[in-house]
Specification:
binds magnesium ion, alpha+beta, four-stranded antiparallel beta sheet, binds adenosine-5'-diphosphate, 8 helices, single chain
Length: 150
């Protein structure tokens, strides 16, 4: 099923100049970036985005981390892309993430795991509209769609 996922390159990805490498992986897979912007997340938005973790001991460190500098927020589109992107991102703890995944290849610490991706269609819907307005999401076709999809 054609889906959209919310993906965010966290401050460490921006600071380490890894944005291009990570974005290239999604492009090379055949996925389509339909929205993208740089922003500095406010504490309020961070708390809302990570509300499911508000009672966890790492919550305040997580909010500090995600608000520490600019992030790149994206909406990525593709067939079954929510689960595919989670696989490409790898386990939450980069030490357990398989090599070949973004976290497995570029990170070492759970508290600096460089990327966020929606974990279900419900989260994707919620997260996309926390960060983007409808008119910021571009629907456009690609000339090679017949080479990517049967
Ligand atoms: N034990 C932990 N210690 C520090 N930070 C954590 C821990 N667990 C999760 N986090 C942070 O909170 C984010 C959200 O956690 P979670 O939703 O469980 O992982 P994921 O990002 O893989 O969906 C993680 O990406 C990570 O930045
Ligand atoms: Mg999560």
């Amino acid at each position: 099923m054609m889906e959209k996922s919310f993906v965010m390159l966290k401050p460490d990805t921006v600071q380490r100049r890894l944005m291009g490498k990570v974005i290239s992986r999604f492009e090379e897979k055949g996925l389509q970036i339909v929205a993208a912007k740089m922003l500095h997340i406010s504490p309020e938005l961070a708390q809302e985005h990570y509300q499911e973790h508000s009672a966890k001991p790492f919550f305040s460190n997580l909010v500090d981390y995600i608000t520490s500098s600019a992030v790149m927020a994206m909406v990525i589109k593709g067939d079954d892309c929510i689960s595919i992107i989670r696989k490409m991102v790898g386990a939450t703890n980069p030490k357990e993430a398989d090599l070949g995944t973004v976290r497995g290849d570029y990170a070492l610490d759970t508290g600096r795991n460089i990327i966020h991706a929606s974990d279900s269609p419900q989260s994707a819907q919620r997260e996309i509209y926390l960060f983007f307005q409808d008119d910021e999401i571009c629907d456009y076709s690609m000339p090679d769609e017949d080479l990517i999809y049967e």
